[in-house]
């Protein structure tokens, strides 16, 4: 337990604090204190100002919230942003993205692409993200170095992938990484079988056994399109989610990404196994994949988180914008304007994401003892006036330009909109050089 007497390292004095848990609360005239990277105080301003603190930071006009959690993405695909637009999923994947990955994805690509993605995400208020890509050892090194928090997944597919000739090699290397990072304070390893249509039963069974042994998450694209479900029914007579349930993969650690197709039996399986759904509305819209019935899931008690997917299908890593899209789309899909209100939308983008990734003991809400993973949004701009409900303003009237400061584990990674550990000019130059190589080839 944090000491109650030692001086605070940092006392933040924003206009509003939105802890997310308890739900619906907005604190005014309050302060948040940090010691040793953890939240140790949330108290009325006057009371907090009486306490000793190494640094006090007035944040007038800002809303302090938990850092956003991007629960699904392919970080290094930031270097493929805009490479193949306006195509349906399977054409996009099979005719454009997989050939490009076979040609370009190596350690340097993953290092540079992941750095670019982390920079973009921090500038958008994201303090934790899930990464489902290749060379996880390279991605995790970048996460370690840049100070952000992440779930890194081990790729599992039926065919060779960049960085692994086969599943044996991918799992062997992945397990080494699990062991190396077992006690890392900010990196959590998980398994990333790509999708039901690219991973065989025997491979899925190996993933299940290993995930059980290691108490690790399983992160997978599932029911992304109606075509995926239809094809599985034609080939085997079984829906993909039902197959995963039969193979024993579903459980509280299972993270089903997309789920645009949900019948009553699918919903029962998700509820029964306490699995999470990760909703990626903009990728689903752009690839015309379908609509995830978020309100129906929420009302049934399913944990729904939100993700951007990769920058090649979105085309940005803007979780605040994604959450706004999710809130608007949920109303259209449910046929009800009360679906996914602003407070629940923020919860989906923070605590639900942390819960899906199994890191909610550490982050996702502003509660005593949790890591100080925070974002300060500036609501003083003209486009945010007047402020009746700061959470409504955040979800419906703010863009990434409102993100002022970001802390992870109490360390400032974005200060006044500037990255403290990454050089933007260098990132821009590297990204442009990759773009020139890729289009010039
Ligand atoms: C080890 S998984 C990485 C693999 O997934 C591909 N990918 C990116 N976005 C999607 C998507 O929306 N559906 C299915 N597959 C996707 C990515 O290009 C990598 O090959
Ligand atoms: Zn994806």
Task: Describe the secondary-structure layout.
Layout: E1 10-17, E2 27-28, E3 30-35, E4 38-44, H1 45-49, E5 56-66, E6 68-70, H2 89-104, H3 107-123, E7 126-131, H4 136-146, E8 149-156, H5 167-181, E9 187-193, H6 201-214, E10 217-222, H7 226-236, H8 240-246, E11 254-258, H9 264-273, E12 276-279, H10 281-286, H11 294-300, E13 303-306, H12 319-334, H13 342-349, H14 351-356, E14 374-378, H15 390-397, E15 403-408, E16 411-415, E17 418-419, H16 424-440
Parallel strand pairs: 1-5, 6-7, 7-8, 8-9, 9-10, 10-11, 11-12, 12-13
Antiparallel strand pairs: 1-2, 1-3, 3-4, 5-14, 14-15, 15-16, 16-17
Helix pairs in contact: 3-4, 3-16, 12-13, 13-15
The structure holds ligand LTUXU72L and zinc ion.
Residues 72, 74, 221, 257, 309-310 line the site of zinc ion (ZN).
Can you walk through the features of this model?
It contains 16 helices and 17 strands. Helix 5 (about 165-180) links the parallel strand 8 (about 150-155) and strand 9. Helix 12 (about 320-335) crosses helix 13 and helix 13 crosses helix 15 (about 390-395). It starts with 9 loop residues before the first strand and ends with a helix. The protein has 2 domains: about 10-65 and about 370-410, Urease, subunit C, domain 1, CATH 2.30.40; about 70-355, Alpha-Beta Barrel (TIM Barrel). It has helices at about 45-50, 90-105, 105-125, 135-145, 165-180, 200-215, 225-235, 240-245, 265-275, 280-285, 295-300, 320-335, 340-350, 350-355, 390-395, 425-440; strands at about 10-15, 25-30, 30-35, 40-45, 55-65, 70, 125-130, 150-155, 185-195, 215-220, 255-260, 275-280, 305, 375-380, 405-410, 410-415, 420. It is globular. The model has no long low-confidence stretch (mean pLDDT about 95). With about 450 residues, the protein is an alpha/beta fold. The strands form 2 sheets. Strands 1, 2, 3, 4, 5, 14, 15, 16 and 17 form a 9-stranded mixed sheet that branches. The protein has an 8-stranded parallel sheet with strand order 6-7-8-9-10-11-12-13. The protein binds the ligand CSC[C@H]1O[C@@H](n2cnc3c(O)ncnc32)[C@H](O)[C@@H]1O and zinc ion. This is 5-methylthioadenosine/S-adenosylhomocysteine deaminase. It catalyses: S-adenosyl-L-homocysteine + H2O + H(+) = S-inosyl-L-homocysteine + NH4(+); S-methyl-5'-thioadenosine + H2O + H(+) = S-methyl-5'-thioinosine + NH4(+). One of its GO terms (molecular function) is 5'-methylthioadenosine deaminase activity. Belongs to the metallo-dependent hydrolases superfamily. MTA/SAH deaminase family. Belongs to the metallo-dependent hydrolases superfamily. ATZ/TRZ family. Pfam families: Amidohydro_1 (PF01979).
């Amino acid at each position: 337990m944090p000491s109650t007497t030692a001086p605070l390292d940092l006392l933040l004095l924003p206009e509003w604090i939105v802890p997310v848990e308890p739900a619906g609360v907005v604190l005014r005239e309050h302060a948040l204190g940090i010691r040793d990277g953890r939240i140790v105080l949330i108290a009325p301003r006057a009371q907090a100002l009486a306490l000793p603190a190494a640094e006090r930071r007035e944040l007038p006009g800002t809303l302090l919230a938990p850092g956003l959690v991007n629960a699904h993405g392919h970080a290094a695909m930031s270097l493929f942003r805009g490479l193949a637009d306006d195509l349906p999923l399977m054409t996009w994947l099979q005719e454009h993205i997989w050939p490009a990955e076979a040609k370009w994805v190596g350690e340097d690509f993953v290092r540079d692409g992941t750095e670019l993605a982390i920079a973009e995400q921090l500038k958008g208020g994201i303090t934790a993200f899930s990464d489902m890509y290749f060379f996880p050892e390279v991605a995790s090194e970048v996460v370690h170095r840049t100070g952000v928090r992440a779930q890194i997944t081990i790729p599992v597919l039926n065919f060779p992938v960049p960085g692994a000739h086969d599943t044996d090699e991918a799992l062997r290397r992945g397990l080494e990484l699990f062991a190396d990072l077992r006690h890392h304070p900010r990196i959590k390893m998980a398994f990333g079988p790509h999708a039901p249509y690219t991973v065989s039963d025997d491979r899925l069974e190996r993933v299940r056994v290993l995930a059980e042994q290691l108490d690790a998450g399983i992160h997978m694209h599932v029911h992304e399109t109606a075509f995926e479900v239809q094809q599985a029914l034609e080939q085997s007579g079984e829906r993909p989610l039902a197959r995963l349930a039969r193979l024993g993969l579903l459980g509280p650690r299972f993270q089903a990404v997309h789920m645009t197709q949900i019948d009553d039996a699918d919903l029962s399986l998700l509820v029964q196994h306490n699995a999470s759904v990760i909703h990626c509305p903009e990728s689903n819209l752009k690839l015309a994949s379908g609509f995830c019935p978020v309100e129906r899931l929420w009302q049934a008690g399913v944990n729904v988180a939100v993700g951007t997917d990769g920058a090649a299908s979105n085309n940005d890593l803007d979780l605040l914008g994604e959450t706004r899209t999710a809130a608007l789309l949920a109303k259209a899909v449910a046929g009800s304007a009360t679906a996914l209100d602003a407070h629940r939308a923020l919860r989906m983008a923070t605590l639900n994401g942390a819960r899906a990734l199994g890191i909610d003991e550490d982050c996702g809400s502003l509660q005593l003892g949790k890591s100080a993973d925070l974002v300060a949004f500036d609501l003083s701009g003209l486009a945010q006036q007047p402020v009746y409900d700061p959470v409504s303003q955040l979800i419906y009237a703010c863009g990434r330009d409102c993100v002022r400061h970001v802390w992870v584990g109490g360390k400032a990674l974005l200060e006044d909109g500037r990255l403290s550990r990454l050089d933007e000019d260098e990132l821009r130059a590297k990204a442009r050089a990759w773009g020139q190589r890729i289009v010039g080839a």
